[in-house]
């Protein structure tokens, strides 16, 4: 399995696939099955991967944010493969257990209920490096890809045991903006002239935006905290998107290295390949970058599966999500699942054999978000052409409803026009998850965790929190920003 980071699923099929040349994704699409409607179960790194590795929705595993995810001893599908005789190897970005990511990231999640706005991310920018011969930009990913290819050649190829290899990439996640210091998040879209030639610039669109005043309050909060509320030129927006697509092309080449190693050792014909991602990337859609949103660019991910006994050139319209990978992998391996899983195997949808499970897949998918850059717990239910988004307790924050078939840009919230649809979908959502109760549990967790962290700092608390990654223009108005920080710190006392 190959898992990318921040990969927009819409690039794996037309018309998105025309924007950037992804030859190895195209290879999987031609010889395997492409799932056209695959969603993350939480549009942020660690919780989404927790869902993928555990097969459980994040409210069941209580994977609330990048700091709070699975316990280190949680049973994953890779553990079950190993127990059943598979030779296993995991390389690259794993990121599904608790305790990781920066202190800033944790505090931002714990304090999101405070009625005060500070920019938490760096303004998105692009960086051109190297020349036409510069191909290995994300060195860490390339090193792990080389290790994966080497493991295939030197271990998998000579073993009599079945094998399972997982390669987790950082690309196409934006790079840390170094000028903002060691605590900065990833807001630099970096690539080289070589990878930019893989993008068709005439097909790179400039997304439509709602006026800030017309935004949903949670989207407004996200735009502000992601440092996207100021003006951007059309050239800036197009450059950010172009560089993001170029980063996708570099990630595709890493997938190619794995495919080449399998082919070289004669393993390709009897190996199942799965390509997916933890979440997408908005790339300036809805006046945002990054993830942490239920809009398509953030919540929709690629899923392509190729292998023996599986259909070729198939496009699957069925709604699926990352929790479905756990039962799918186990069914491919002929291993019984352990415990109650949220997901359902997708094998019946793509197998050429009639001797597979006939369990029907539900006609909906669930995604939820409880982390930073969104000031309310968010729940998304996709059913047919409807996308319903509910927040918090279902009362204090208004919901959103989009017809994603006719409104592909998700600019028209029609919740007031279709009250019967809203009522029906909210009832279905509550039958899946008691979301007001979950939101309350997350709020209590945030309050208790922040209080414990604050108390652990003692007298150093004010200095530490003032030096987290708040991106404000100190040179422009030092006094005003000092007061802003003081006001924000004082407001935290209400937590």
UniProtKB/TrEMBL annotation:
Its cofactor is Ca(2+). InterPro entries: Alkaline_phosphatase_core_sf, GAG-degrading_sulfatase, Sulfatase_N. Coiled coil: none annotated. Gene3D superfamilies: Alkaline Phosphatase, subunit A (3.40.720.10). Transmembrane segments: none annotated. GO terms for molecular function: arylsulfatase activity; glucuronate-2-sulfatase activity; metal ion binding. It holds the Pfam family Sulfatase. It comes from the Eukaryota. GO terms for cellular component: extracellular region; lysosome. Residues 20-335 form the Sulfatase N-terminal domain. Belongs to the sulfatase family. This is Sulfatase N-terminal domain-containing protein. The lineage of its organism: Eukaryota, Metazoa, Chordata, Craniata, Vertebrata.
